[in-house]
TrEMBL record, chains A, B:
InterPro entries: Pyridox_Oxase-rel, Split_barrel_FMN-bd. Residues 1-24 are annotated as: Disordered. It comes from the Bacteria. This is Nitroimidazol reductase NimA-like FMN-containing flavoprotein (Pyridoxamine 5'-phosphate oxidase superfamily). Pfam families: Pyridox_ox_2. Gene3D superfamilies: Electron Transport, Fmn-binding Protein, Chain A (2.30.110.10).
Length: 224, 224
């Protein structure tokens, strides 16, 4: 890229976003972080309950420098975020596995991946307009274009859904790319070595048997 | 299945393994839990540091009723597990996303998934034989048959690698399968509805450019 990177383009590293292991794999570039976040839609959300960690998979969406997670108003982390005055301390992690790295030595086996870890406090979204936008973003994050092609949530559904917000402030990406890093003395070993790239994408859509007559597969789904 | 399920076939539910939301999606069957765990190799490991949650992606393997995670002896959770006398409280979560469920209403959009959440204490594995078996299991868990087809870790590599163990005791699976659950009054809406199944597998292996002459792709990789 041209020009000098400005501090505004990166998340300032903190004690907990600088890894003790493989710090060369860590990155704080906002563009990279956004790209990793936008490519996924399932995160693992961690919080503390009764002093012990809890990690649950859930959907998320990014809107600018904010992440949103939604769930039933009855679910424990969402209820806890609503009750916590200063916000619920959470760690939200998104991971893409890109390939398996098979080295000649067991020790140098690895995985190509890109992950983002976000630390911060989650707040209950109470503003109706922000909540509505967050829910649209959650649907569009999974399938771009889908929010406009579905019935929006009604009052009762909105009331049954809690949305929490986590600002992107204390954030790091971590990634491993490339090939095998074997020890020089292992290169002559007769073991196959290389990378198995993960295949990504979708199989053919399975239409609901009760579609209204004449309902065709929309273009934004056919394109996936 | 024939016969009556025995208590030994299930993990006893506890306060934290019974979800407050969609309890009908929770399962405690050992066979099902093992199958979900064995199908994946990347988990999200949660622990508490300075009172705040941390969630990191890492490889894992199952050996019977034990899970193993490995890492550098310098990595924070592994170091913490080694130092914690009563074990480091962790939550280890494995998630497979199987499909996107696109409903006519935004509210009923969902994801087909299978996840396992394990709560417990992680202990540093100090027995050399258990450690060696765990490391073999970690390699074989990613690619079955690979441990025997790579150079085993030497003394120095073993010393640089920490392995922690988490027993399968407080465990639950959670899953959503099937199609769209729209409200009856939405069925006539003109929106396409159905399931987009995720495609899984690998693209063609990319061999390391420096393979020893005559090294062919082994059968266990070609089969993937």
């Amino acid at each position: 890229m041209q020009g000098t990177r400005q501090p505004a383009d990166t998340y300032p590293p903190t004690g907990r976003t600088v890894p003790t292991r493989s710090p060369d794999r860590a990155a704080y570039d906002k563009e990279l972080v956004h790209a990793i976040l936008d490519e996924g839609y399932v995160c693992h959300l961690g919080f503390v309950r009764d002093g012990a960690p809890v990690v649950l998979p859930t959907l998320y969406a990014r809107v600018g420098e904010r992440l949103y997670v939604h769930g039933s108003t009855g679910s424990r982390p969402l209820r806890a975020a609503g009750q916590a005055g200063p916000g619920l301390p959470v760690c939200l992690t998104v991971t893409h596995v890109d390939g398996l790295v098979l080295a000649r030595s067991a020790f140098h086996h690895s995985v190509n991946y890109r992950s983002v870890v976000v630390h911060g406090a989650a707040y209950d979204v109470t503003d109706p307009e922000e909540k509505r936008q967050a829910l649209d973003a959650l649907v569009d994050h999974v399938v771009p274009g889908r929010a406009a092609d579905s019935r929006p949530a009604d009052k009762k559904e909105l009331a049954a859904t809690a949305v929490i917000r986590l600002d992107l402030r204390e954030v790091s990406a971590k990634l491993r790319t490339g090939g095998v890093n074997d020890e020089p003395e292992d290169l002559a070993l007769p073991h196959w070595a290389g990378v198995l790239p993960l295949r990504k994408g979708y199989d053919a859509p399975v239409a609901d048997p009760g579609l209204a007559p004449g309902t065709a597969l929309p273009g934004y789904l056919a394109a996936l």
